[in-house]
Amino acid sequence: MGLVIPAVLPYSKKEFEEELALFSQISSVNRVQIDVVDGKFALPPTWPYNVSPEAAKGSQTELEMMMQDGAMLPNLDRIEYEIDLMCFDPEQVAHSWIESGATRILFHAESVSDVSKLLSSARKKFGANGFSSMISFGLALNIESKLALIEQCLGEIDFVQFMGIAQIGKQGQPFDTRVLEKVRIFRERHPKIPLQIDGGISFDTAKKLVALGVSNLVIGSGILRATDPLEAFAVFENLESPYGV
Description:
Blueprint: E1 4-8, H1 13-24, E2 31-37, H2 62-68, E3 80-86, H3 90-99, E4 104-108, H4 115-128, E5 136-141, H5 148-151, E6 159-163, H6 178-189, E7 195-198, H7 203-211, E8 216-219, H8 221-224, H9 229-237
Parallel strand pairs: 1-2, 1-8, 2-3, 3-4, 4-5, 5-6, 6-7, 7-8
């Protein structure tokens, strides 16, 4: 598995399809993160949650309509999709994405009052639907949150994501250096747990994170807004992490 996880934060179906198509051109891309923002837990809302049900069809979102038409996420034979659920009621939202082929689900610890209950419920729900052996669950932690919020649940998840920015839900935010100390402490306590960082990553900050033992770098604007996105991806990917997964 490569070091870099490209991320898309689409505001329209067209943007969603174009950005996924761009990453599909890179043969070494084997995982893509799709950012989902409901406009309540974080702002602004992303596609398909920024499309009113009236504009779609009744109470359905465009994603649900796509599922009914049998549409699946592209290139599932070689690309694993990870859904970063920056939303309230994340378990319900996760279902549509799993039905469309996603196999990694990332819950934000701050989005619910009981993280352990959420994880237990999600495993039971998706296991009953025959997905349990295919789905990996992770927890994301905001920059202001304490490690204690997730440490009691580490045995229930497959990976952890720290947000590297103060304001989640938007690409292009500045890197918050406070995450470096959080990574250092987490790695000392939990050296074997896959840890990825999302937000504000430049080549310089990427080198620091890799040196601290980060497993993966989730990068959106650092690739998509580059003059040559394919070259930018290659530059990041050439860094090596001793904890890569």
